């Protein structure tokens, strides 16, 4: 991903960044993926009754059925607080709220802020509330929790320890997303991840490594991975303690002067040093790596079929077709069928926006699968506040069967001989529910998570 910095983004970018700061979220894809939602009013299927776990620094809100998982969340939060308060040199004066939801469905029904399918968690600066769902993976949950806690610390530092008092200073300083989100990724994931390394390697080898000025000015450059890399460079060169020093300095003096005070470098100088470090590390690998275009060709792309998202591809058993999820040339994410040899779109199988039976196709948290004979395609679909497993008859373009599962959140469907297997982890019971589906029978099994 790349782009050119330019004056044309000026005032529009200021509005975009200010609005983004007023509710920092962790997307799972390279964008917030909000195409599944339209209009101002949310449909709320669940009437949640929250209980509270009070720890030394947090009020953890949870629904009664999730107490065991909420206790784990409280322990994770206190453990992360001990580390982050030391690195960022800041202590909370007031207990901070964390609201945990039992599923992605309940999370999307929250009445605090508007979120989309691709949002993994969100922190708002008015009351410093963290909102996030259990998704069944404790590793992913802990990453999102720590990411959002960094935002909570950022807001608290801008507010000088008084919840909600930092809004004017946030708007005045207007820290860019690479600064806020990159710091949250660095302090929740560590110095590097395979995904960040992949982005840096590709950008360096293709000559598309952005400057800090471009990251700040160009909204088409996704800031998370590059911001993660910049803070990793700062931590490696000056030590993690300087991350907190930079944050305090920026909250007081603004971006340019804050970096000068904390690091002794201007932002352009830091940009040059960081880019040189990345290029020194990855450019020697040019001789070892061959561009993907030399050994393969793009099949389904924005230029060829339209749309930015082309996700969850599933190749048919005979290898002649591929089903995938995309917003295509519309606003909503739908299920498409394309020729596996040419990439030509044959047709749209499911229109999620035009039927109450397909409120969301869970295009991030699940994937679909073909039956062994290639006649049916199984996919998870949100319907009435829960998820159904839909068996779609590809040959006749119709729903063959809709199976209501005792689940909230995305499901995974895979073919196994003559069966479909649909699995979903349940954090409250620490179990995985497995649905074994023949065309005329349905059975369930539960496996413990250790």
> What is the 3D form?
globular
Proper CATH architecture of the largest domain: Orthogonal Bundle
Query: Domains counted in the coordinates: how many?
Result: 2
Percentage of β-strand residues: 15-25%
Average pLDDT works out at: 81
Q: Strand count, sense and closure of the main sheet?
A: 6 strands, mixed
CATH class of the largest domain: Mainly Alpha
Structural class based on helices, strands and sheet pairing: alpha+beta
> Roughly how much helix do the residues carry, as a percent range?
25-40%
The CATH topology label of the largest domain is Neutral Protease, domain 2
Low-confidence stretches: 1-21, 30-40, 409-418, 427-433, 439-450
Measured distance between first and last alpha carbons: 39 Å
Quick overview:
By secondary structure, the chain is of the alpha+beta class.
Feature tags:
450 residues; alpha+beta; Neutral Protease, domain 2; Methylamine Dehydrogenase, Chain H; 2 domains; six-stranded mixed β-sheet; four-stranded antiparallel β-sheet; 13 helices; disordered C terminus
């Amino acid at each position: 991903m790349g782009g050119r910095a330019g004056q044309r983004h000026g005032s529009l970018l200021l509005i975009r960044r200010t609005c983004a700061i007023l509710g920092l979220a962790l997307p799972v894809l390279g964008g917030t993926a909000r195409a599944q939602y339209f209009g101002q009013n949310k449909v709320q299927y669940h009437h949640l009754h929250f209980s509270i776990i009070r720890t030394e620094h947090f009020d953890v809100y949870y629904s009664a059925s999730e107490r065991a998982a909420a206790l784990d969340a409280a322990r994770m939060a206190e453990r992360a607080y001990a580390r982050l308060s030391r690195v960022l040199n800041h202590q909370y004066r007031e207990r901070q709220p964390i609201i945990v939801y039992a599923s992605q469905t309940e999370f999307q029904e929250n009445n605090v802020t508007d979120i989309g399918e691709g949002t993994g968690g969100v922190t708002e600066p008015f009351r410093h509330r963290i909102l996030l769902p259990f998704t069944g993976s404790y590793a992913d949950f802990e990453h999102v929790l720590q990411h959002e806690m960094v935002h909570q610390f950022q807001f608290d530092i801008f507010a000088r320890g008084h919840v909600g008092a930092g809004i004017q200073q946030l708007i005045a300083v207007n820290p860019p997303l690479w600064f806020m989100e990159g710091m949250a990724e660095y302090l929740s994931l560590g110095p590097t991840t395979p995904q960040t390394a992949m982005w840096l390697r590709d950008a360096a080898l293709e000559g598309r490594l952005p400057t800090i000025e471009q990251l700040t000015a160009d909204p088409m450059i996704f800031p998370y991975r590059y911001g993660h890399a910049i803070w990793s460079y700062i931590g490696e060169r000056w030590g993690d303690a300087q991350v907190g020093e930079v944050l305090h300095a920026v909250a007081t003096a603004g971006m340019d002067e804050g970096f000068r005070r904390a690091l002794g470098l201007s932002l352009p100088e830091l940009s040059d040093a960081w880019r040189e470090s990345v290029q020194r590390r990855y450019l020697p690998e040019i001789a070892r790596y061959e561009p993907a275009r030399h050994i393969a060709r793009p099949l389904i792309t924005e230029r060829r079929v339209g749309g930015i998202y082309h996700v969850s591809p599933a190749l048919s058993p005979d290898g002649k077709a591929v089903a995938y999820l995309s917003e295509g040339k519309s606003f909503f994410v739908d299920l498409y069928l394309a020729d596996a040899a040419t990439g030509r779109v044959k047709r749209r199988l499911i229109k999620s926006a035009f039927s109450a039976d397909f409120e969301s196709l869970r295009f991030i948290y699940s994937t679909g699968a073909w039956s062994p004979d290639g006649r049916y395609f199984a996919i998870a679909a949100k319907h009435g506040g829960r998820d159904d497993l839909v068996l779609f008859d590809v040959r006749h373009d119709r729903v063959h069967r809709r199976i209501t599962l005792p689940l909230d959140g995305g499901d995974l469907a895979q073919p196994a001989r003559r069966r479909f297997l649909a699995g979903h982890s349940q954090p409250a019971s620490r179990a995985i529910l497995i649905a074994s589906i023949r065309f005329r029978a349905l059975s369930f099994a539960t496996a413990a998570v250790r």
